[in-house]
């Protein structure tokens, strides 16, 4: 009893600290401290006895408002105890607004505001909940046992705001409470359905077998958790488990026994990831207190991991299973990425840790988790596929950037900082990629400034130092500025270090840097200007502090080239560099989160080099040039001839990274209302152009049999595009593949399944008589969605006039326009001495090392 009272007080103080001063919660007058939930689970419903311990945070609270949807409450059992006395107002005890899911309980006397002496209050009631496959929040999921008999499992998915379908609760996503579960699996259930396992977020404390052979399982009280962080799973799944190498973490995967082998690879992969995380963290500290359970639930309702879950991860079965004959490389990559991301979330802070780390800005946590997921994936690939590590993470960097930039240009797209302390579960799904991928891209940019090793050493030290505390941007910024105050005038020209970083977090979108080279023999002058990038709006001035890195055609070893070392702000920035008649290319290795446009002369020099010897420019820089060329054409910055001249060399391109970037660039042509004034005729012209460019690479790799991940993905992407462009050999091949499948039941290579479905949906839409499995359905739904979007775009497109000029041939000789003349008088706009960016970073390291 003493122990309990103590823990109760402790909890209250925690609740006070976290919530009572949060503005948005002030109008809540009653707070839950503990939920005790006793479930009697039968075949398709459960009865529940619930006891909620609450405290009052106001005077004169005469009414308690609970959220409860779709629950059959036994109102006779409804009581509010003050110590041992029921204080419900008997003449008018309650009101249940079923429509809005609100339960109002009226009290005979006001609750006493919480203090050390105040009495304890408990809300007690019983209710019944009927379950079907369609019920929200908590539902049945059918699965087959080894004999093919259908059985049902009970599964939860409580975010956002679905806990009130599970039990009556105070449905505020920020409230945290202790949960105590007791699960009684009733006899008929065990006999008829042989469902015998239940899992929830805490460990089993003890169990008890009753006379009727039914079992009661008591679970230990949970730590303080939010409603969306809890879960329950009941089934007769079996499990496989594997411990991590150096800490006490164990990964357990649950599935029907006869299917367990399909999950062996996710188990091994997950444990490898955990080992990588431990190696990175370099401290002997488990990710979670107790095992991490992954449950493969065959339900399409479960799309993605629940971001707040840490030891009970339910996910759609087909997105966890490896079936060599059905899993496409994209599906495997997705599975690997998502699990890595979830494990990183857990590592960065979870309710089950001994000392809990909290992030005030959950968008920031999401971004860091995403970035680390790619970082660990790169290491994993290196271990398993013998590719060089640096290359790999850089390629993921490109991937993050492409994904982020896809959404990050609309006028309505918010700045990252405006998510402020929005909870991760409340970030709208259309901004998921923005929050995860943009933050990750910016971190990738930082990593490039300071070098991989230093960056990660610093990051891990910072996170380790904040264990059991808050991590917030403000804390981060403050420490940063404190460290750099003496450098302010000298290096940042009056601005602080945090301003440099926050310029990326606090401004929406991303910039395009305009490069103009005023050429004058050996005294060339380079002018840089930045604007917000947009496909449809007029350019507005932007004010990012941009780290600039560049390479030059005739001076490979220049001092400034090695590392990004200065930033530009709002003004035109100019510097001298002897280009010796060659090009300059910004955004080396494509690591900066911006696009670059050049003057026409420079673009043509770049195009010439690409055509003559594209390998002299490294792969990732090429990838950026190609993507920028598409984007700048679409945004009306460069004309079609110039864009095609730059892209003309693509028939010689063999790099998977560049092609990935080109394919994403080609997708940009479908941007609606873009300033390039796209028409049907123009679009056809582009398709024809791309068909010619992709043909050579298609012919080389479509029959190649390499099975490593990079080769499979490359093949899959190239085949998809070639077929979407109706490249005849590709079309024939798909037709053949499909006929083989339809007539002879030969399975379709999963990597080209998407392309195949696309063809079918574009032609007769007949998918044959074989029922689709979950892997195939996933692909089909995705293709259908993409085709819908494409059709919508095409429908709106005006027909347009044919261009007067003939279509360009592939073998162009590059002609250069006359040199721009340097006007020495007017060219000299404000010339700022290079701001040495490295200093910010040194400070950053100093901060993180503290
Ligand atoms: C609390 O305040 C918010 C905004 O003012 C309002 O939307 C919400 O309904 C209030 N909640 C309660 C319980 O009064
Ligand atoms: C009950 O407890 C025993 C011993 O701790 C354990 O072996 C058994 O698996 C438990 N049963 C259930 C249904 O959890
Ligand atoms: C539950 O039932 C399955 C078969 O239905 C059996 O394989 C498994 O061992 C059982 N688990 C427990 C804990 O009794
Ligand atoms: C974030 O929220 C806090 C408190 O809710 C507020 O003081 C601050 O101004 C907000 N910051 C931004 C960038 O919106
Ligand atoms: C950038 O590119 C250069 C040249 O290809 C390469 O040597 C270097 O490792 C790359 N840097 C990073 C961080 O990937
Ligand atoms: C698109 O059309 C507008 C209005 O007719 C015109 O001003 C603009 O120059 C066109 N853009 C391009 C890239 O042709
Ligand atoms: C510092 O910034 C101010 C305005 O922000 C500018 O006028 C001045 O030229 C800058 N000084 C240097 C040394 O860059």
Report on this model:
- By secondary structure, this protein is of the alpha+beta class.
- Among the domains are: 1-140 and 162-228, Immunoglobulin-like, CATH 2.60.40; 358-505, Neutral Protease, domain 2.
- The chain contains 22 helices and 30 strands.
- Strands 1, 2, 4, 5, 8, 11, 13, 14 and 15 form a nine-stranded mixed beta sheet that branches.
- Helix 4 (329-348) packs across helix 5, helix 6 packs parallel to helix 15 and helix 17 packs parallel to helix 19.
- It is globular, with a radius of gyration of 30 Å.
- Residues 194, 196-197, 236, 238, 257 line the site of one 2-acetamido-2-deoxy-beta-D-glucopyranose (NAG).
Brief descriptors of the model:
disordered N terminus; alpha+beta; Immunoglobulin-like; zinc ion binding; 30 strands; Aminopeptidase_N-like_N_sf; 38% helix; Neutral Protease, domain 2; membrane; 850 residues; binds 2-acetamido-2-deoxy-beta-D-glucopyranose; metalloaminopeptidase activity
Task: Chart the SSEs and their pairings.
Elements lengths: L1 H19 L9 E12 L3 E12 L4 E7 L4 E11 L2 E2 L7 E4 L4 E10 L9 E10 L7 E7 L5 E7 L19 E10 L1 H7 L3 E4 L3 E6 L5 E5 L5 E2 L5 E4 L2 E6 L6 E6 L8 H18 L10 E6 L14 E5 L12 H20 L9 E2 L2 H24 L3 H19 L24 H19 L1 H14 L4 E2 L1 H12 L3 H5 L4 H10 L4 E8 L6 E8 L13 E3 L1 E3 L13 E3 L4 E4 L7 E3 L8 E4 L1 H14 L5 H16 L5 H8 L8 H13 L11 H22 L7 H16 L3 H17 L5 H13 L11 H23 L27 H4 L10 H12 L1
Parallel strand pairs: 1-11, 18-19, 19-20, 21-22, 23-30
Antiparallel strand pairs: 1-2, 2-8, 3-7, 4-5, 4-8, 6-7, 9-10, 10-16, 11-14, 11-15, 12-16, 13-14, 17-18, 23-24, 24-28, 25-27, 26-29
Helix pairs in contact: 3-4, 3-5, 4-5, 5-6, 5-7, 6-7, 6-15, 7-8, 8-22, 9-22, 12-14, 13-14, 13-15, 15-17, 16-17, 17-19, 18-19, 19-20
The structure holds 2-acetamido-2-deoxy-beta-D-glucopyranose (7 copies).
The site of one 2-acetamido-2-deoxy-beta-D-glucopyranose (NAG) has 6 residues, from loops.
